[in-house]
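User: Hi! I'm working on a homework problem where we have to compare a predicted structure to a textbook description. Could you give me the structure for the chain below?
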Amino acid sequence: MTSTVIAPGNGGKPFSVKANFFDDGFVPANPVSNYGFPNPIITYANVDGSVDVAWLDYAGTAGKNAGGLSTPHAINITHVNPDLTTGVTTTTGILSYKLLGFTRDSAGAYYIAYNADHPFKNAIAGDVNNVNGNMLKVAKSASTSFATPLWDTLVFGDKDNHADGSKGNPGTAGGGVLAYDVAGQKLLIYVAHQMAWGLNGTRHQAGYLRYVDPASGKLIAPGGASDFMGTGWLYSHNFNQRLLIDNGTAYLLAHGDAYARQLGFLAYSYASYAKNDRALFDQSYLAIDGTEGDNATNAQTGQFIKLANGTFALVHTTSQARAARDVRIVVASGTDGTTRTSAWLTANAAGVQAITPKLEAVGDNILVTYGLWKSADRTNKLIEWHIVLLDAKLNLLASYVPTGVEFTADAPLIRFGGGPNAGRVGWISGNDAGTLSVNLISTP
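Assistant: Happy to help. Predicted structure tokens:
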């Protein structure tokens, strides 16, 4: 594989795993956290082989910031040329505590999901309104500069957090993702959030899914809409959010801690959403042991892809009935979401934890990446990354241990559909030098 360093050129600093991910204050440590994280680096692969990279500026930050910054920082977009050797960075003009989504549409417009402070914010210790970035917003621009956006929509979070049904805290214990439905000409946002159940009630965490009109930025409410069920309260708690749109159908992964307590694979069409807010299917691919809502699932959702035969490949980690967290790959039906087959890719000894699993198709084969982290010493910042190639029956074909690279937990791999690297797989991350690394894998 090859890696090319691209300096942002604007004085900014992208997220780095070694500098920003590890945090000795959390139990368990971030690499094996039971919660998800916002994605600070999000890529969009263009048809010409270039890549647009949205990233939250971590310059000048320190401490507990994998889950979001203590002050709002700039969101930047770096356009990486098709040869993947040079890039140009634009400061969008948006300031945010978290990056909660980035995508483009078929006309070339740009969309960013971010958070901002709400009017009830205070500095009272322990008060539910003492929140950084309680409002979720989505903005659209015709260019990489959002100085004059086409629209900038409030999704939720402008209410007093003491009020019954007040939604806010976007990206808490999870993240967010934006995707554009080319067939249906709609934008979708899928994000973690919190909401009060009752006046002055406990603020519980769940997922939230909404269609958005890309022309106006107006939210499109589902049929029979309720903030307390359906896509308004999608899996609770929901620690990882994944979204893939194919031919007008939105496929989701959810990481449920209570209702339901499982790793779930779901699908929605716009028709099913608009009619009665019901999923086309909602299937478990891992039933999680333990007590509902105990905030400990001992698992991590990876990525998922649609294969050429119409099935889906999903990858995740779990320590359930294992000596430590191991990587499992699942092939599921694209029609009803049921599991067709699965395989374990690791058999780790106690204290060696699999983290950050990802996958992508390479012809008829499947490429999987993951890290191994020794958890006996929580100050250990060394992750051993692995790349394996599987055949269609999930048999191992080849393996490789790259050095000098890193993977951002929630960022998917890139499969280039055009340009000089068409058909190849890669990813873009930060690095120890505070720049961007463009990594390209050579596969058979």
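For your comparison, note the following. The mean pLDDT is 96. The two ends are 12 Å apart (CA to CA). Good luck with the assignment!
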